[in-house]
Amino acid sequence: MRRTLALFAALGLLVAACGGTAAVPVATAAPAAPSAAPAAPSAAPAATAAAPETLDGRFAKLYEAAKAEGTVAIYSSLNTGDATKLWPLFEKRFPGVKVDHTRSTGEQVVQKIITEKKAGQDLFDMIETNNFEVKFIIDQGYTQPYKVFSWNDFAPGARDDAKNQWIADRQNKDVIAFNTTKVQPGEIKTYRDLCNKKYEGHIAVEQGDAVVYTMLKLHFGEAEAQSILKCIAANKPSLRSGHTDTSALLAAGEFWIELNAYASTIAGLKNDKKAPVAFVKTDPTFIDIQLVALSNKPKHPNAGKLLMEWLTSPEGQTAIASVGREAASSAAKPKYPELLDWAKGFYNHPDNSKYQNADTEFWRTTFGIK
């Protein structure tokens, strides 16, 4: 969940306390015995163009140095279940480099880094979590620019072309989901359709997701976004916490519609659990991203770069997709077919964090969140 309003305000106070050839003469008498021709001048050696770098070449160079470091410390909000599947794949690919994963929520990751940095401790090599939290750490100067080899596999909205400070490794498509025993496919096409009074009392809202309002506002304009949310609120939605739990209750039929589900979660329920759920592919598709960034003072600099390279490579992105997460790279095929063939994506850029306080206040007030 993205409840960083109070945390960031408090942390803001804590933070306050890079020439030509000669002509041959014509013979006029009997020719003498020919003399040896002068040796041709030796040609200057042709410049040899440097071979273009390859991903495997970068891997090899970083791995050689990372083996001596032995460990890479990543602070991440990736859940433990997915991490226990993902990190062994990296460790098998690069024997001798162990992943030291500190798992916390995005807010806790921020607080931990701030506390450590203020104590003069440089303990993390990489951060991987929600975009606003990573942006906060970047703004404190606790990261450094680093451009991974697979940069161009990512959409412009999923990479920092301005300063090379971050790149997405995971993403969540925020979608309207529904129980197919309660709502027919095609019945809901837009967010405005949720204003229909027949859905009163049958909609669930994940209450920490104020970023949905931010994306609605930036695309449709503030007046239209506020109008949509106010009429959805008039339908007396059920306020819930946790996308996974909320989607599971949707599948169980506790309510008909989930305003702000993750597409990958719904696809997993449909395909793996055979649950009666589906989601709406709106135009545009609102996409929230999780970012990776490299510490400004990594304890294991080569291992940190190696893990960042692997996570964003086609191999690492495919590994992320294999555990049911949605990879951010176009080079990785998603695990579930429902995650293909979308309308244009509308990415929630980290700079949108500047709207967070005001947007969270409107979201909470509109839905009556305490």
- Proper CATH architecture of the largest domain: 3-Layer(aba) Sandwich
CATH superfamily of the largest domain: Periplasmic binding protein-like II
Low-pLDDT windows of residues: 13-37
Q: Please report the number of helical segments.
A: 12
Domain count: the total is 2
By helix and strand content, what is the structural category? alpha/beta
Radius of gyration equals: 28 Å
- Major beta-sheet overview: 11 strands, mixed
Strand content: 15-25%
The averaged pLDDT comes out at: 90
Query: Helix and strand string, N-terminal first?
Result: HHEHEHEHEEEHHEHEHEEHHEH
Overall 3D shape: globular
The CATH class name of the largest domain reads Alpha Beta
User: How far apart are the first and last residues' alpha carbons, in Å?
Assistant: 15 Å
Please provide the count of β strands: 11
> CATH topology of the largest domain, which one?
D-Maltodextrin-Binding Protein, domain 2
> Helix coverage percent of residues?
25-40%
What does this molecule look like?
The chain is α/β, with parallel strands linked by helices and 370 residues long. It folds into 2 domains: 56-171 and 289-337, Periplasmic binding protein-like II (D-Maltodextrin-Binding Protein, domain 2); 172-286 and 359-367, Periplasmic binding protein-like II (D-Maltodextrin-Binding Protein, domain 2). Helix content is 37%, strand content 17%. It has helices spanning 5-16, 55-69, 80-93, 106-118, 131-139, 211-220, 222-233, 243-252, 263-272, 301-312, 314-322, 356-367; strands at residues 71-76, 98-103, 126-130, 143-144, 167-179, 203-206, 238-240, 257-262, 277-279, 285-295, 345-347. Strands 1, 2, 3, 4, 5, 6, 7, 8, 9, 10 and 11 form an 11-stranded mixed beta sheet that branches. Strand 1, helix 3 (80-93) and strand 2 form a beta-alpha-beta unit. Helix 1 (5-16) packs parallel to helix 4 and helix 6 packs across helix 7 (222-233). It is globular.
